Amino acid sequence: MEAKTVQPVNLETSRTIKRKKSYKQPWVLHLMVLPAAILVFIFSYIPMSGIIMAFKDYKPALGIMDSPWVGLKHFRYMFENDYFMQIAWNTLFFACSKMVMNLIVPFLFALLLNEVRKMALKRTIQTLVYLPHFLSWVTLSGILIDMLAQTGIINQLISNVFGIKPIFFLGDGAWFRFTIIFSDVWKEFGFNTIIFLAALSGINPSLYEAAEVDGATRWKQTMHITIPSLIPIAIVIATLALGNVLNANFDQIFNLYSPLVYQQGDIIDTFVYREGLLSGQFSFATAVSLIKSVISLILIVISYRLAYKFAGYRIF
Amino acid sequence: MYHKTLSYRIFSIFNNVFLTIISVLCLLPMYHLLMVSMSSSAPANAGLVTFWPIGFTLEAYAQTFKNANFLASLWVSVQRTIIGTGLALIVNTIAAYALSKETRVFRARNIYLWYFVFTMLFTGGLIPGYILILKLGLMNNLMALILPGLVAVFNIILLLNFFRGVPKDLEEAAFIDGAGQFRTFFSIYLPLSMPVIATVSLFIMVGHWNAYFDGMIYMKDAAKLPLASFMQTIIVKADMSSLDAAAIASLSQRTIRASQIFISALPILLVYPFLQRFFVTGIVVGAVKE
Q: Which fold, A82-311?
């Protein structure tokens, strides 16, 4: 920048000056990172300091600093509470079931899609299956609530074909769990195939040619070439998913659950929302989410270490 | 040669049919909703509409576009999507450019990276974030929907991985010609990075359009609710029977609800086919490193 204000005496020197300036101007690079760094400081690091609320009895009138310290009161209350144990279990159940299904279904789908030889058909299928990923859970819950209602299309179909009574998909605990997992897989499986399809396109074609010469059927090629080539990326995905065992998808459950299914459907995040913002138990809710954040942090660090160790995976 | 055998041909036919059915099942719920929204309200309420409108009418859409709350929310969503995406692109791409430099050139790079990545690993949680917005006086302000999520570390990583793939020779040539960092970024890196920028823009736009939770907790006026939050209140709360009689009466109009859901999802459906080809390349390229 300064170089522009200096009147160049002759061409040669001005170029060397400019080159040196631009190559050695880390302050410009600092300037470029600055806006992002400030925003992150305000909206991520300042709230992190707010977790001291978990060790206090926060009163809005007193502010965070002047509210009285209560030590581990909220944590003790949490672990002595049967309902908290139930939602912790629900959270684990939903997150793990989704994780397993969201690995298996896209894996199989990618294998089948790989066998489609008509490019136009393949592309159409891809376009359609990626779509639900981009619709919000608000939209999808609107659709699901409509379709799964007593008079909705699904129940009509069931009663017409099987002649059984309508099912309370969103009002019965067991069916609620099924609906949550099924609809999550329906929404995400297409998008999750992307990574497998990328891995499939990276397989060396000469492997298949060699197998062909040796007389291997397509089934044998799939078992001995395709699947083994996908295993490493599947392991990376499974390992990285470990950090998400406490994320059961707030948006989905929040938009589909009701007090009828709290016992089987309530999760940590929805509980934090209700306790904190609806009931005003700010400190208790912060304590609950702090426990969740700490466990998640530990799991993420472990999972990235494992992914790096076994597959050399790095994010940057 | 395997694809010439009889058994593979039979498999192939079944496979194509099966995958076609699966992919149609991804679209069918949206399609059914559209059909409900275009039917007369009596057959729709009775649950007679399946895959064809009964008593075709666009009355529900006319009603929806007369609803002042719906229109106000639509406008809030348009604003937050445009302003939010624009600001986020500027801040994130510039930061990602600086962070894509080697440690030799930009010594603080790794410190910054960990500073950003740590926020992906650990957060203060819902309540401290809410109190911060309250203390900053951003309640009921459009900026409460834009600023907190402006820096998305995942996007920065995607961008910086892409920037690292841009040949170093181009950058050196630019420096020798006297360009500074900003000039190099705007004239060399940006034009070469359109696929990944399209990907990131898609993510940010879709994120803004679909976000409902921040609007729900930070916006106190009904007229300032973004569309997704507005939809959330009419769809989900309707199911929880916590509304007054007038609201319930209007909600019993299944067709109106369907039309509102469809309109709120329409921008996503429209923008999606154009950007689809970018995001696949963008994700794959962003994920592949040397």
A: MetI-like fold (1.10.3720)
